[in-house]
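ok so dumb question maybe but i'm new to this and my supervisor (M.) told me to 'just get the structure for MFS nicotinic acid transporter Tna1' and walked off. so i did the thing. is this what she meant?? sequence i used:
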Amino acid sequence: MIEGVEEGDLGQDIQYDEAEVKKILRKVDWRLLPLLSIIYLLSFLDRGNIGNARVAGLEKDLKLTPAQFNLCLTAFFFPYAAFEVPSNIVLKFLRPSIYIPILMIAWGTVMTLSGIVKGYSGLLAVRIFLGFTEAGLFPGATYILTNWYCRRELQGRMAFFYSAATLAGAFSGLLAYAIIKMDGVGGLAGWRWIFILEGIVTVVVACVLPFVLPDSPETARFLSEKDRRFLVQRLSRDSGSTGRVNTNEAFQWRYVWAAATDVKVYLTTFILWANPIAGYGLIFTLPTVIHELGYSASNAQLLTIPVYAFALICTVICAILADKYRARAPFVIGPYCVAALGYIALIALPHPKYPGATYGMLFPAIAGIYAPVCGSLTWNANNLAGSWKRAIGMAIQLTFANLSGGIGSNIYLERQAPRYQLGYGLSLGVTCLAILSAVILRFLCAKINKQRDEMDVDAIREKYSEAELMDMGDASPLFRYSL
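this is what came out, is it supposed to look like this??
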């Protein structure tokens, strides 16, 4: 039997067996995960399709220099990073079913307008506004997941959601391949139709969300009142020990300070850095990299699909195993080691002598970069309590990680094609930094857990009231960090 949980005025403990718990979680899965995945897929399509548009003629038509194109890529990340923390604070005050559609309508409109830009200044402006309007989605969506699932259940769901990004990488190539055949329709180039059509789809989906996106377990109409109470109760007990955590406390500025001064947040940031630096670099340039190996522009678009599909499979497998064994570090460190080997091979290969081998090494490099992302995000979320510190700490992690995305968009230099010494070399460096940071974080959390295991629980409860222990969040001696 699953132990019931008291939660203030929620009434007596509720007990469900394992089968009943799984049934409730399946209801949540089917209602929440497909929606968040579709939203994130659209987001990733809209930010990354500039790489497909470049191959389809954007750079030539707008008369951009390589430096100007890279600056347009970079400009996206600064407003994107700057508004992630404020956005998560706003999300805590507004309902997700209202706030997320507002964001989508805003960035969908910006994306549609990207299809009518006339030159460098116009493209730069829409990329800045796109960064601003998309800023709140990923930190908001990942935080929303933590409000529904316990720590041991989170990474698999996070992977399902995040796999939309990997799927977007594959789908964008296929979609671009089809859309650029509209070249000349309405007097517009094919790359313009990529922006226009994908932006319109985003706005249409946003208009449906207020009616279908659930806000929280407390208000989920697709669950019975008893099921809602049970979800809230089990989440309040999800401390890794005998303690409880706050799930809906009032805002205080000290929660911002607690998140901003937590070393674990910054270690997970270093772990995550490898993805935006190495990952975004390839997202924006992968069609070009493949094209420069001697493949046609159309085939280069299609050849991105197997790479991202392989990364998607690896991401899901790592997440399922991480939740099954309730371990985060091995499924972060392992994939990054694979990525490091991939980048070493890409550096060592005599380009462009062996285009097939170069293309083959893109598989472990990209899969090894994508697979640990959910692990690093989940690891950070697992180790932050209560809800305000978790919301802000997750946003801080993504803020600094996404700032580094501006680096990633500038490391694949046209003059270095097809060897890309800077791109592959820096990607290898940040991957090694991620491995080192994960080892340190695992050691630190294990050390604190061991110290808390040696404390006397009765003495702790005699010294602190239940309210005081809950108010401590993850600093409570009854809280245990995920490893």
